[in-house]
Specification:
Number of helices: 10
CATH architecture of the largest domain: 3-Layer(aba) Sandwich
Bound molecules: adenosine-5'-triphosphate
Mean pLDDT: 88
Strand content: 15-25%
Oligomer: single chain
CATH superfamily of the largest domain: P-loop containing nucleotide triphosphate hydrolases
CATH class of the largest domain: Alpha Beta
C-alpha cells in the first residue's frame, strides 16, 4: 500500500530523517517507535504531504505521490488524524464529525449548488454517517456536547471518528494513547482493531505506549536518529540490542 524509498528530510543543517525505506502492506497495523527526536513525526509529515522530502520517493497504492499536498493525499485515502483544532472546541461532537470535508471532490457543496434537493440529500448523508461513527465509537451520549468538554480519551475516539467520515485507506495515528485513561485506552484499541479487521483500514501508529504497540502492531519499526534501526515483530524488535541502546541513550541524554 505504501512504499518509502530512501526518504531524507533536513531542517537547516540537521538531518531529521535519514534515508528511510520501508513498505507498509495493506491490512496491517504498523507500529512506529523510537526515542524522542528519532524522526517519527517528521516521517509522518512527509508521508502525509505536510512538506516534501529533500530526496527519496513515496508510493501510495502503486502511484508516485512524492511532493503531493496533504489535501491531494486525503482525497486518495491517505488520512492523518490531528488533534481537534482549537476553534472546533466550541462545536459539538456531532458537528465536528460533520465538518470533515467530503472525501470525493464531486461531493463538494459547489457541485451541489445546482440543486437544493441534492444539498439536503448530501447533508442528510453526512449526518447519518456522523451518527454511525458516534454509535460505533460509543459516543452517542456526548453527541451534543462541545468537543472542548470531552475527556482526553473521548477526544481521541472523536479523532478516529473523523477518519470514518472519509474513504480512508491508510490512517496515520500520532500517539493515540497519549493522555487517555486506561479504560478508554482499551476501547480505543478495540476500535482501531475493528476498523482494521472489519473495515479494512491500514494503520501506521506512532506510539510510546508499548502495551498498545504489543497488542495491536505487526510489524513494528524502530527509528533512531532519523534512521530505521530495525523492523520485525514486537518481541524481535524489543530484544534487539540496538533498540535498547537507542532508548538508553535517550535516558542518559535526558538525565544530563
Ligand atoms: N520544523 C522543525 N525545525 C527544526 N527541527 C525540527 C523540526 N521538526 C522536527 N525537528 C527536529 O527533528 C528531530 C526529529 O523530530 P521528530 O519530532 O520527528 O521526532 P519524534 O521521533 O517524533 O520525537 P517525539 O517522540 O519526541 O515526538 C528532532 O531533533 C527535532 O528537534
Amino acid at each position: 500500500m505504501l512504499e518509502l524509498d530512501q526518504l531524507v528530510m533536513d531542517f537547516g543543517g540537521f538531518r531529521a530523517v535519514d534515508r528511510c525505506s520501508f513498505r507498509v502492506e495493506a491490512g496491517t497495523i504498523t507500529g512506529l517507535i523510537g526515542p524522542n527526536g528519532a524522526g517519527k513525526t517528521t516521517l509522518f509529515n512527509l508521508i502525509a504531504g505536510a512538506f516534501p522530502p529533500v530526496s527519496g520517493s513515496i508510493r501510495f497504492l502503486g502511484e508516485e505521490v512524492t511532493g503531493l499536498s496533504s489535501d491531494a493525499l486525503f482525497h486518495k485515502g491517505l488520512v492523518r488524524t490531528f488533534q481537534i483544532p482549537h476553534e472546533f472546541h466550541r462545536l459539538t461532537a456531532l458537528e465536528n464529525l460533520m465538518m470533515v470535508p467530503p472525501a470525493q471532490p464531486g461531493e463538494s457543496l459547489f457541485a451541489n449548488w445546482l440543486s437544493w434537493g441534492r444539498v439536503r440529500a448530501a447533508e442528510a448523508k453526512v449526518e447519518r454517517l456522523a451518527w454511525e461513527a458516534l454509535e460505533f465509537l460509543e459516543l452517542t451520549h456526548v453527541a451534543h456536547e462541545r468537543a472542548g468538554n470531552l475527556s482526553g480519551g473521548q477526544k481521541k475516539l472523536l479523532e478516529l471518528g473523523r477518519t470514518m467520515m472519509t474513504d480512508a485507506r491508510l490512517v496515520l495515528l500520532d500517539e493515540p494513547a497519549a493522555g487517555v485513561n486506561r479504560t478508554l485506552l482499551r476501547k480505543l484499541e478495540d476500535k482501531i482493531r475493528i476498523l482494521n479487521e472489519e473495515r479494512g483500514y491500514t494503520f501506521i501508529l506512532i506510539e510510546h505506549d508499548m502495551e498498545m504497540i504489543q497488542k495491536l502492531c505487526a510489524p513494528v519499526i524502530c527509528m533512531a536518529e532519523g534512521k530505521v534501526l530495525i523492523e520485525g515483530d514486537f518481541q524481535t524488535v524489543r530484544a534487539d540490542p540496538r533498540v535498547l541502546e537507542a532508548y538508553l541513550g535517550e535516558t542518559v541524554g535526558d538525565a544530563a
